[in-house]
Every structure is written in C-alpha cells, then in structure tokens.
Amino acid sequence: MATPLRGLLGAKVPPNSKTLEEARNRTFDFFKKACRSLPTVMNIYNLDDIATISQLRSTISAEIRKNANVTNPKVIDMLLFKAMEELTNVVDHAKQRHHIIGQYVVGREGLVKDLGTKDEGASDFLKRFYETNYF
C-alpha cells in the first residue's frame, strides 16, 4: 500500500546508486542542472552587480570538489540529495539575497580574509568564531 503523502507531495526519491560510476554520473547531472539554473538565480536575487554566472559556476564546482575524496555511493547519494534540496530552496526563493551573497558569492573564506587588521586585538576565541561564522 502506497503512503498517502507520496502522492500529495509528488516527491520521489531516486533509487540509490549501485556503483561509484553511477554516483559520479549523478553528480555531473546535478552540476549541469545547477548551472542551468544560474540565470534564474541571478535574476531572482539581483546578483548582476556583484557576481557573474562564471563566478557562481566556480563556486558550485568548488563545493562539489570538497567531497571529491568520498568513494561510498550511498554517501554520495546523500550529499547529492542535500545539494538538490539546497538548489531547490535557492531557486524557489526560500532564501534571502544576503544568504546567497554570504554563502556563495563572498563565501566563508572571503569574509575571514576581509577582516585583515580589524581583528588584531581580538582574542583567539573571537578569531576562531569569525572563521566558523560567515555573518
């Protein structure tokens, strides 16, 4: 018997990848889908003045490459599921402009570098805090 929520939500979770090659192909498919949605994201969040599609594409690529060492297909599938959820939230405008700028345009490393001499007198606690929080 099918669960009643499955028909209502219309969400279908794809089956798990059987091999590493299949998971790799799904990763490429996700990358293509994310890149195809970039013009929409640029338009929704009005990012033309601060970023280019090429820069956002590089950010997506860097996020995917962070997990290049993962070889378990089930883990890759879970990461792809989370990435797809994030992409859906971005495209459905479930985030605000400053979230997109902080996470994908400036990034965590960018804000830490921007602090420069501002944190010279800061304690080690604050320096570690700034490294882990991009706000």
Automatic annotation (TrEMBL):
Origin superkingdom: Eukaryota
Biological process annotations from GO: response to oxidative stress
InterPro entries: Complex1_LYR_NDUFA6_LYRM6, NADH_Ub_cplx-1_asu_su-6
GO CC terms of this entry: mitochondrial inner membrane; respiratory chain complex I
Family to which the UniProt record says this protein belongs: Belongs to the complex I LYR family.
Sorted UniProt keywords: Electron transport, Membrane, Mitochondrion, Mitochondrion inner membrane, Respiratory chain, Transport
CDD domains in UniProt: Complex1_LYR_NDUFA6_LYRM6
Bilayer topology: Peripheral membrane protein
Species this chain originates from: Dendrobium nobile
Protein name: NADH dehydrogenase [ubiquinone] 1 alpha subcomplex subunit 6
Compartments (UniProt record): Mitochondrion inner membrane
